[in-house]
Specification:
The complex is a heterodimer of chains A (457) and B (339). By secondary structure, chain A is mainly α. Chain A has 18 helices and 2 strands. Among the domains of chain A are: 47 residues, no CATH class; 37 residues, no CATH class; 225 residues, MetI-like (MetI-like fold). Chain A has a two-stranded antiparallel ribbon with strand order 1-2. The longest helix of chain A has 30 residues. The mean pLDDT of chain A is 86. With 339 residues, chain B is an alpha/beta fold. Chain B has 2 domains: 207 residues, Periplasmic binding protein-like II (D-Maltodextrin-Binding Protein, domain 2); 96 residues, D-Maltodextrin-Binding Protein, domain 2 (3-Layer(aba) Sandwich). Chain B is built from 15 helices and 14 strands. In chain B, a hairpin with a 5-residue loop joins strand 2 and strand 3. The termini of chain B are far apart. In chain B, 47% of the residues are buried. The chains are: A mainly alpha (457), B alpha/beta (339). At the A-B interface, strand 2, helix 4, helix 12 and helix 17 of A face helix 1, helix 2, strand 2, strand 4 and helix 5 of B.
Chain lengths: 457, 339
Amino acid sequence: MSDVTANQSNLRVLGGGIAPRPAPATTVGVVGWLRENLFSSLLNTILTILSLILLYFTVPPIIEWAFLDAFWTSFDYDGNGEIGRNDCRVEVLDADGKAINAVRGACWMFVAERWEQLLFGDFFKDGSLLRPTLAFIGLFIAVAPMLFDQVPGRNVLLLFAVVYPLLAIWLLSGTGIGIYYELVYLGLIVSILPFLFPHMPMREPLTKFARIYPLLAVVLIAASFFVSADGLTLVPGILTSVDTHLWGGLLLTMVIGVVGIVLSLPIGVVLALGRRSHMPAVKLLCVIFIEFIRGVPLITLLFMASNMLPLFFPEGYDFDKLVRALIVVVMFSAAYMAEVIRGGLQAIPKGQYEAADALGLSYWKSMYLIILPQALKIVIPGIVNSFIGLFKDTTLVLIIGLFDILNTAKLALTDAKWIGSVKEAYAFVALVYFIFCFAMSRYSIWLEGKLETGHKR
Amino acid sequence: MKIKLASLVLGAVVGVSAATAASAATLDDVKARGELLCGVSTGVAGFAAKDDSGNWGGVDVDVCKAVAAAVLGDAGKVKYVPTTSKERFTALQSGEVDLLSRVTTWTFSRDVKLGFEFTGVNYYDGQGFMVKKSLGVTSALQLDGATVCVQTGTTTELNLADYFRTNNMTYKAVNVETADESVENYVNNACDVYTTDSSALAAQRSGLADPSAHLVLPEIISKEPLGPLVRHGDNQWGDVVRWSLNAMVIAEEKGVTMANVDEMKGSNDPEIKRLLGSDGDMGAQLGLSADWAYQIVKQVGNYGESFEAHIGVNTPIGLDRGLNQLWTKGGILYAPPMR
């Protein structure tokens, strides 16, 4: 206590009667910031001026087009009984001073009239829009506890997240995936539970179940090939069935993107570990898989899955087109993911492996507890890079006749009354892509910061 | 209980022959399924496009509807399978679709080598040129030295080269990948001329800021007969598709329309009687009900009605009938007699 008082009095003595002078006006406030950041040298001054000129020539026309001159609400201005691009035409003077009817600003009516298709494809024709909307909302609820550990009620939400895939399939398709696969999935949930909740009751028998689960799953999947159980399902049959060929727009982009992202990471980890395995057969298989997939463009694989596979199936054995596309997308992104993760594994110093061995940990435990947490942390930027690439690659499914959001927009442009709305369509789709990709990118930066433990290389 | 795996393995062993298996008795397959699987394009204005409520429409789509009306009695029982130009032939070959109706040009190699059967022509197209009116050009022969916007890797590009060489003219090509880009280039004066199939030219012209400032030149420099096609070897199914299209043309020729088809049923004209099933057994010979053509006209309309509804002068696309007029009115549309 007395020390502090002494210090303060000392300060008072040292400060004397001279008050500190404010910093020069040119180094603080707006002027100071400008001087330091924009005009600090001749080169910077030139660059600043050039940028301003560039902005002057690009920003005002874009604002004028997208906002000031734009038509926002659907109204039949030309009175022809339907809403189309012609309703966005206004009288302007052409180069010769002659009055013509031209579209000057953005015709957002196009998006307003087509949003159902852009978001959900043809879904609304058979089912109600409530179902895909609920699936979207459910997705965010399911994903939140996985992305952030501060979410209130995280454990309950995690439980919801594991049930969510089945729920989403039911909401979207109206039917289940067949009793065998539903049982396989439920078994998976039950075997994960004891790991999620270490203090839950009945943990002991559940752990035992988890041990025999893999065998059970294999039996069930094998059974599905031999004994048909058409029509048998666990989900209630109260929703009308919506065929996957009606799915489209953002819904399809999300389905392919999310399934690809969720499945490619674990499969990629397994492939990466396999490629570094000391078991020759496992190593060879992983190397062949990864190199084959990486050696072929996605579009070729999709084309194969869509056109070659049916030639080898017996007539009438219809394998859903969307499922084929999903399998290809997952395989493709898993191969890339494996190489990203392998990069992380190689960055871990040998001492970490040796330390894990010295502790007597088994292979899986040393990977799970020591190696992977460090390796994955290092390659977060690479992983998110792959995710963003995957999300944008989903548009290639057009090659097999599926319409994601970009291709739905392109298809809409061929409707006679909307021909020419190219800029509006692409601007809208670009905005949607940007929102998702930017969110992923920001999340990855946030996660890197959160996991930063001072080992930054 | 059925043994799925056995049939799966068998199918895999038989391999590609499974594809040919799909081509037998398509008519029975469609009837049993109660739905026609129709391959359409992934969007071509006026030929196959989706409206705001998600329904397909267009002259190619009308062919699908006509066949469904003839076979199943309901033009709505069609499942549209959008196919890209790369995928279209395999889709038909593998049995994924029963019929392909997607702006496909009838050529020798597609008909003979690929093993398909074209069942008629539903639109006679051809490559044309669009210029800005301010250029003052009225004929393609005045285009010597022009810069031309053209899509790469298409027959359009080859036709263009041939045409200019034949007429001893020079040009500078601006090559891009997609039609949208071509139009954007053309609008921004990167080229003087834009060339593609004339139906597409008309459609894209309608979407320009001021369509009246642009002119489609009268010269057509290539033959592009577009029509539906089916797998080779299933002649009965081929006949059904061919005569569904012919029925639409004959209906126009005889003045039978969607509106007056009921009253035309009592007509004394023997061909109308045969067409609408009140005389003869044309339907039974095709394996269809007697009123098959009546259903087509009633639900889809005749050829002229379909044309005017989707690409005619009163639509934004605004195509003239031109070659696609009936032979009696100066065009080349000519259906064999129904007798």
